[in-house]
Amino acid sequence: MSTVEVSDRDFALTVPVLVIGAGAAGLVAALSAHEAGAEVLVLERDSLPRGSTALSAGLVPAAGTRWQREAGIEDAPAGFAADIMAKAHDEPDPALIATVTGAVGPALEWLGEAHGLPFSVVDNFRYPGHSAYRMHGLPSRSGEELIDRLRQAAEAAGIDMICDAHVTTLVAAPDGRVRGVVAGRPDGTAEEIGCETLILACNGYGGNRALVARHIPELADALYFGHPGNQGDALLWGEALGATVRDLSGHQGHGSVAHPAGILLTWATVMEGGFQVNASGERFSNEATGYSEQAARVLEQQDGVAWTIFDARIADIAGQFEDYRNAVAAGAVVEGDTVAALAEAAHLPPDALERTAAAVDAAKRGERADTFGRAFAGVAPLAAPFRAVRVTGALFHTQGGLVVDGDAHVTRADGTLLPNLYAAGGAACGVSGRSAAGYLSGNGLLTAVALGRLAGLAAARQARA
């Protein structure tokens, strides 16, 4: 149970910058504060840093980077900001969007130059809503590699980290200044640690069924594909301290988790010309609007499942992602030399799937308008051999949270700042607005990296002042 204790409790140990959470946001914040000359301690509830980052594809969107320039891609933060605002129907705070789109590119270049993270741009397919190739990933295109390399960078920098430390209580002064925390340990003991500044990097509330049911009722019973430790601690602590909260119904869903294997299937399978059908072999939506809003659409189908249909060409593109290779190894990808054979392998009605595939091909050739309004013109028809994966919809992480300023400093409802509290990643209100449809691919790691960088630098400045 997350609580705030208002007291003058003494602490035997006080650190200048304390970070709760060792996902991408927390580790970027810790590396930034350390670089700025502050002593940092990171507390992580798990035995090894993982978080939701490890469950993601590890792709960070950024505009105007050196990797884009090297690939001949013209892009700028202003264009990125416009894409975010368009996807979220002008709901997010424009100032926050400008802040994170301006900060994330330099943050990635810093991680590459100072800590050796070998980013490159995904330039063979474009994610929904992005007007340029701007997804940056590591060689395996996996979140596991991203979190492992960030952890290694923190260890190489000599940053102190205590794992198996579950923070349950924030200790605060009457004016809202956080004085320290209490963290439970596996043996039943507790660590009491004071701090001059505190960075909340413990994500959102996706793992808290009660909060999901309250704020995102349409996904109350959905598969949760985030970290179970995301219990809303930052949200609850912030509210208790008088922080402003915003867009709590905002979230990232995903309509393509291989089922029952539980492996994320890259949306390249759809964006490169694939489509989804239900158990009747029929399409049910415009899949290209975005994978986040597709989660609820898939869950509306019989048994909450669908099939993603694609071909060998698309499978080759998907093969750059470790998750897809894992899905193949797990037997989640079925094949067929004809559409009818694929239907048999997937236990779908052959006649219906053939009709659906023919209609999609006709739309791609420009012979008919797509029933669901998808722009198929110019997209290559699927060709044998064909592929299919049984998928379900899932909740990945929440996007609403604590409102922060341009330094990731948590604000109160009256516009003043909580004295020494910062938030990054899923703990902070993101840039996706109030619904799944507002989520632009990569928004989660965007605010993890950008706000993590800003929070670490600002907290270090305050701690040194």
Summarize the structure.
The chain has 465 residues and is of the alpha/beta class.
How would you characterize the overall build of this protein?
It comes from Acuticoccus sediminis. InterPro entries: FAD-dep_OxRdtase_2_FAD-bd, FAD-oxidoreductase_2, FAD/NAD-bd_sf, Succ_DH/fumarate_Rdtase_cat_sf. Pfam families: FAD_binding_2 (PF00890). The chain is an alpha/beta fold. The chain folds into two domains: 3-250 and 399-464, 3-Layer(bba) Sandwich (FAD/NAD(P)-binding domain); 252-395, Succinate dehydrogenase/fumarate reductase flavoprotein, catalytic domain (Flavocytochrome C3, Chain A, domain 1, Alpha-Beta Complex), CATH 3.90.700.10. The chain contains 15 helices and 21 strands. The strands form four sheets. Strands 1, 2, 3, 7, 8, 9, 10, 20 and 21 form a nine-stranded mixed β-sheet that branches. Strands 11, 13, 14, 15, 16, 17 and 18 form a seven-stranded mixed β-sheet that branches. Strand 9 (178-184) and strand 10 form a beta hairpin.
**What CATH architecture of the largest domain would you give?**
3-Layer(bba) Sandwich
Beta-strand percentage?
15-25%
pLDDT under 50 segments (min length 5)? none
CA radius of gyration is 22 Å
Given helix and strand content, the structural type is: alpha/beta
CATH domain fold name of the largest domain: FAD/NAD(P)-binding domain
Mean pLDDT across the residues is: 96
DSSP helical segment count: 15
CATH superfamily of the largest domain: FAD/NAD(P)-binding domain
**CATH C-level of the largest domain:** Alpha Beta
Give the proportion of residues in helices.
25-40%
Q: The biggest beta sheet, please?
A: 9 strands, mixed
Provide the domain count.
2
What distance lies between the first and last C-alpha atoms, to the nearest angstrom?
A: 33 Å
DSSP E strands, number: 21
Shape field: elongated
Protein name: 3-ketosteroid dehydrogenase
Cofactor: FAD
Transmembrane segments: 12-33
InterPro entries: FAD-dep_OxRdtase_2_FAD-bd, FAD-oxidoreductase_2, FAD/NAD-bd_sf, Succ_DH/fumarate_Rdtase_cat_sf
